[in-house]
Amino acid sequence: MIPRPSFEQPLSIAKDYPLFTEEYPNVSEFIEVARITEFGEGQMKKVMAGSREILLARIKERYYAVDARCPHLGGDLSEGTLHDTILTCPMHHSQFDLRDGHVIRWTDLSGIRLTIASRQQPPQSLKHYPVRIEGDRILIAHE
Ligand code: FES
Q1: Which residue, by CA, sits nearest to atom 3 of ligand 1?
Q2: How far is the CA of 118 from the centre of ligand 1 (A)?
Q3: Top-level class of domain 14-142
Q4: Fewer CB atoms inside 10 Å of the end CB: C or N, the chain?
Q5: Exposed, middle or buried by CB within 10 Å (0-12, 13-18, 19+), for 96?
Q6: Boundaries of every domain in the chain
Q7: H or E element: which one contains 91?
Q8: Predicted confidence (pLDDT) per residue in 58-91, tens digit
Q9: Quick one: which of 33, 117, 120 has its CA closest to 106?
Q10: What is the model's pTM?
Q11: CB 58 within 8 A of CB 43
Q12: Atom 4 (ligand 1): residue with closest C-alpha?
């Protein structure tokens, strides 16, 4: 059984590499996407990991990486708003928890309009990626 990713992520985990590898057996490599000096508390920005657009955020000394495009209709989440680990899409205000990408709210519709919209585009979690910190380098899993 594959263990769930831990949300506990110290700033420097270099000494924990063997443990980290055991937690993510399907991760073939980590690639550098940014430096910790680029982020203040509560900041997020879009970075590239190969050809993937990734949204990287720092919240309470931890870093989270998720797809930068909303799974609803592709809104640019780097233009959304962030409150603690809750990310809100700028287009139709779906909300996701950055810790694991789960959906908190699917669009800002309600009632029958939400039912119809959810049938057309069922709620879908935001893909998230393991993050590793090496010194001041931020690396994310590259599958
Ligand atoms: S595109 Fe993000 S909520 Fe619609």
Answers
A1: 92
A2: 12
A3: mainly beta
A4: N
A5: buried
A6: 14-142
A7: none
A8: 999 899 999 999 999 999 999 999 999 999 999 9
A9: 117
A10: 0.80
A11: yes
A12: 92
